[in-house]
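Narrative summary of target 7.
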Amino acid sequence: MHIPEGVIQSAPVLVTGAALSAGGTAAGLWRLDHERVPRVGLAAAVFFVASLIHVPVGPSSVHLMMSGLAGLLLGAAAFPAILVGLMLQAVLFQYGGLTVLGVNAWNAGAPAVFCGLILRPLIRRGVLGAGFAGFLAGSLSVLLAGLFTAGALIWAGEEFLASAVAIVGLHLPVAAVEGTVCAFAGAYVARVKPEMLGMEATDAN
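Modeled conformation, tokenized:
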């Protein structure tokens, strides 16, 4: 999912990614209250560690993210958590990059927020179990991140078309693995801390 520094030379792609990420970060911070700050830090740490283990694919890479779980737990506040994780990776390990930070943050953060905002109310209303919602959040966030990354590369240049197709294909097994991990994580959170998913204690699975 990460696009390395210097791969995208297109100013419109970089500027658009930066603008979208600025908006996503502002929205996430606006909805963030003091009580959830430790939760944001935890989500950023989980994302940071999970996405360090990656497999290079052309100009990008595939890896676990746990961003869907962050979306379930934080909603819009997942975006700044993911941005912080990506920034630390870029600064400490030169993984990704600062000029492409906005693009990478949008590719990972927007799917996480989307999944959280759609699935979290369904958990609260009892329409979906926390485990199944975790699976959907984990798998869909990875698939959407792969599609967003592929789209950014194709927009940046037709020479990236083959790599973009490969990235989407390789995200399919990653989505299955991440969905499974997030399913167990979601079910566990529902049992021990259901309020983190907007549930009452009596609603826990």
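The domain at 11-199 is CATH 1.10.1760.20 (Arp2/3 complex 21 kDa subunit ARPC3).
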